[in-house]
Write a structure and sequence with these properties.
Structural class: alpha/beta
Strand order of the largest sheet: 3-2-1-4-5-9-14
Largest sheet: 7 strands, parallel
Shape: globular
Number of helices: 10
Order of helices and strands: EHEEHEHEEEHEHEEHEEEHEEHEHH
Number of strands: 16
Radius of gyration: 20 Å
Helix content: 25-40%
Strand content: 15-25%
C-alpha cells in the first residue's frame, strides 16, 4: 500500500511509520513540526520515507498529500491540556480545521479506502462507574470545592457513596471535558461522516496513556509519563497531583503502532472506534514510582495534592473490541515497559 501518515515525524506517528516501512509499504509523511512539540527536526526520521514538512491547514498541501495514496493514517494533532483556554484556537485549527481540509482533499479524489484516525480516551471524560445500590451511574463533574478538600473520587448522584470504577467500553457515553478532548471527538465525527458519505472506512483508535521512546520532553503539551520521566532523569522527585490514586491504562508506543497496522489492514467494510490499551490499569503513582525506581539516583515521587482543571479521576479501558475486530492485543507489560522507558531517548 501507499500510505499517507500525517504527523509522521511525531512520537506516535514515527513509530507507525517505522512499522509500515518494515512491512514493505510505501509511506508519505506530512508534518508541520509544530513548534509546541518540536524544538528541532527529529534525528530519527526514516530514510526510506518521503517527508513533506508542510501544514495540513493549507488546502493545497492536502491535495498534494493525498495524490496516489491507498490509505490514510491520520496521526497529526495538537495534544495535551496545553497552557490554558487561550490555546483553544490553536487546538481547533490544528485538529479540526486540518482534519476538515484533509477530508475535503480526499473528497475531491473520491477516496473510498481506509482512514485510520488517532483519537483518544479523553473523549469519554470520566470513566465508567458503578454504585453498589444504583448500578452503573454517570457521575457529575468534580467540583473545585471537593477537589480542594481532597475529595477526589466521584460519588453516586443518588446516594452519595464513593463509586467503583470499571473498564470503559467503546459504547460508553462520550463527554469531553477539555478543549483537546472536544477537538478529538469532533475529528471522530468528521471522519465518520466522510466514511458514510463516500463508502469508505473510518476506524478511530482511542489511545489511552501512551508512553515510550521519542516522547517530547517536559512541555505543557507533553503527557504525564514524559513529565515524570524528565523529572526523574534530572534527579528531581516526580510531583503527583491529587493523592496519586488516579487510575489509567498505560500502553507502550510500539503496541500503539501495531494497533494502527492492524486497523489499516482490517476488513474493508469495517468502520468503528476501538480502545487502544493494555487492559491492565495502574495508578498514576504506580507509574511515577516505577520510573523513579528504574532511574539511578532519582528520588521517590512526591504526592503534592491539588489538581489540574480538565483532569478526570479514573479512566481505563476494555480491550475487547480491538481484540475481536482488529486482532490486536498489547504485548509490552507495564513493569518492563516502564523500566525501558526510564532511559529511553526523548525528543527535544
Amino acid at each position: 500500500m501507499h500510505v499517507l501518515v500525517t504527523g509522521g515525524a511525531g512520537f506516535i506517528g514515527s513509530a507507525v511509520v517505522d512499522l509500515l516501512v518494515d512491512d514493505g509499504h510505501d509511506v508519505r509523511v506530512v508534518d508541520c513540526l509544530l513548534a509546541a512539540a518540536h524544538r528541532q527536526r527529529p534525528d530519527y526520521l526514516n530514510p526510506a520515507v518521503e517527508y513533506r514538512i508542510e501544514d495540513l491547514r493549507d488546502p493545497d498541501v492536502c491535495r498534494r498529500a493525498v495524490d496516489g495514496i491507498d490509505a490514510v493514517s491520520h496521526q497529526a494533532s495538537m495534544v495535551g491540556l496545553g497552557v490554558d483556554f487561550a490555546d483553544v484556537g490553536d487546538y481547533v485549527d490544528h485538529n479540526d480545521l486540518a482534519t476538515a481540509r484533509l477530508l475535503r482533499a480526499l473528497h475531491d479524489r473520491a477516496f473510498d479506502g481506509r482512514l485510520v484516525l488517532a483519537s483518544s480516551m479523553v473523549v469519554y471524560g470520566e470513566g465508567r462507574y458503578r454504585c453498589t445500590d444504583h448500578g452503573e451511574v454517570r457521575p457529575a463533574e468534580r467540583t473545585s470545592a471537593d477537589l480542594d478538600a481532597g475529595r477526589y473520587d466521584p460519588r453516586c448522584p443518588h446516594c452519595g457513596v464513593v463509586l467503583a470504577p470499571e473498564p470503559v467500553p467503546e459504547t460508553a457515553p462520550l463527554e469531553p471535558r477539555n478543549v483537546y478532548a472536544a477537538t478529538k471527538l469532533h475529528q471522530e465525527h468528521l471522519c465518520a461522516a466522510y466514511a458514510r458519505e463516500h463508502g469508505a472506512s473510518a476506524i478511530a483508535l482511542r489511545y489511552h496513556n501512551v508512553y515510550g521512546p521519542r516522547m517530547p520532553r517536559d512541555t505543557p503539551y507533553a503527557g504525564v509519563a514524559s513529565i515524570f520521566r524528565s523529572a526523574a532523569a534530572q534527579g528531581e522527585a516526580p510531583r503527583v497531583f491529587e493523592d496519586g490514586g488516579q487510575r489509567r491504562d498505560f500502553v507502550h508506543v510500539h503496541d500503539v503502532a501495531r494497533a494502527n497496522r492492524a486497523a489499516l489492514v482490517a476488513p474493508p467494510a469495517l468502520s468503528t472506534a476501538c480502545n487502544v490499551c493494555s487492559g491492565e490499569p495502574h495508578t498514576v503513582l504506580d507509574m511515577a514510582t516505577a520510573l523513579s525506581a528504574a532511574t539511578p539516583g532519582a528520588p521517590a515521587p512526591v504526592v503534592v495534592g491539588g489538581h489540574r482543571l480538565g483532569d478526570v479521576r479514573h479512566v481505563f479501558a476494555s480491550p475487547d473490541r480491538a481484540r475481536q475486530l482488529l486482532g490486536f492485543a498489547a504485548r509490552v507489560p507495564f513493569a518492563l515497559g516502564m523500566q525501558e522507558f526510564a532511559d529511553a531517548p526523548l525528543r527535544d
